[in-house]
Batch of 2 targets.
Target 1
Amino acid sequence: MSKTKLLSITLAVIIIMNVVLISKIGDLNNRVQNLSHNYNNLGSSINSVTSNVNQSLDRFIREQSWITPVQINHEKSKVDTEQVLAVFNWQIKDYLEESEVVFHYRLSDTEEFTTVVAESINTGFFEVSLPLEIKAEPSWEVNISRTEKGVSEQSIEQIAREIKQADKPIRCYVSMKTKDSIKSSEVSYINYEYLAHIKYEPVRGHVHIDGNQYNISLFDDSITTNNMESITAEFYNGNNLITHKQLERQDDQNGIKSYHLSYSSDSEDVSHIVLEVEYSNGDTFQKEIY
């Protein structure tokens, strides 16, 4: 084959390859343009959705801003042994005179909402008082540490706490009726069982156990009138009462009271300890802390 013919064939192959390459580059450019167009459309859609969400959120905030959240006024609430008169209050910012304001609530054991006409305590400020069943008692916050034999400078800590959490909150909302319309707030969930502990000062302190030696220290830094008056520790072996000891009370210059007891059980095995706390109003409470 002559050189001229070989050169012609090579040139033809190169031309064909360039045509194919140019065609593929054209297809690639079209795809890139399509992707760019789709990306722009997606961006526009996202911006549109974001704008709609922001508008809906702004509208929701404007609708809800006419009223503040319903709260419990624990200073005005009154706690008895088995019941609390809970005071709920809130503010209506755009209150119109002669509008009817109603408090709707539902307890955990009921299916229907109960309505109560709210009492106006000031312009735009309202409250209702609801009797709720609750058992008044102190909270117990006692830290237990124990030093085991053969273990130096180590302690096993256990927290004994009895602070009830409200697993059955009250559901409520507020409605306001004017001449032209009725509007309601969103339903809120309010925990109220913490009111069970506001009548009594909490029992705070720690117990350290080192072999047969038991050291108990409790503190009362309350400024209320219904505080701890005396504390007794009962030591048990199973169901048998080994002994009961009254903690020694000490008062410091800042008005903080502390109670202390150091007791050695000698050869007696102590299975558990019960504290009995007497308050200044005469009420007493017992709790097994160890």
Note: The chain has three domains: 1-65, 71-137+166-194, 200-288.
Target 2
Amino acid sequence: MNMETIQPIEELDRISLIEERIKEYILKNQLRPGDKLPTEEQLAAALQVGRTAVRETFRRLEALGIVESHQGFGRVVREFNFDPILNGLFYGLVFHGHSIMQVLEIRRALDDYFIKGAIQNLQEDDLVQLEAIVQRMLEGGADNPNFHQEDHDFHALLYRRCGNPLAAQLFEISWSVRLHAIDRQVALSEIPPGTIAEHVAILAAIKERDVALARERLAAHHDNITQSLRTQIEQQAESITL
């Protein structure tokens, strides 16, 4: 191993600096997922810090999904994915009480951008699935207890075909935040009027491969959701003050 690429630390914030040195080591040595990292002893000697500080830094890197520990082998570079970051994002949105309206604004922007890729990539089997989902919505009507699941499945399929896996994960986070709000009776607990018809219209535009029309109808769909949500929040606030 080329330990010369790791420089000693002299500043006070040792954990953060050790983390940066290890990241630099991974990049400069072009390590790939599964490649073994130096031991705690080697890093402590190279960085001129204690093993405890190195061990704590490894714990942080493991939490970030950059490093993983294998029993009897040591620590290796982990196959990167966004799960730890996205899980933290969901927790932050829920814990810090970010407005559901702000989450819906982000979701609207994502829908508008990624619908083009979805329409381009959708196959005939996908259209059959979308039609089946919309048919279940129509059959279930306004009192359909499974509507939220069907609504999710409709949009999730579009995101799976948009060509960007990260966008699909962001959709799932926005959906989870919305469900959390519903569970707390803060957001949509009822199906907004016209929502089912909006899905019928969106699907028709998708089947025509008309991106502009699909965007227009998605925008109308979001307008309806936002207005319905705003009305429910206002009514809830009024009932509390009475």
Note: The chain has two domains: 3-77, 83-241.
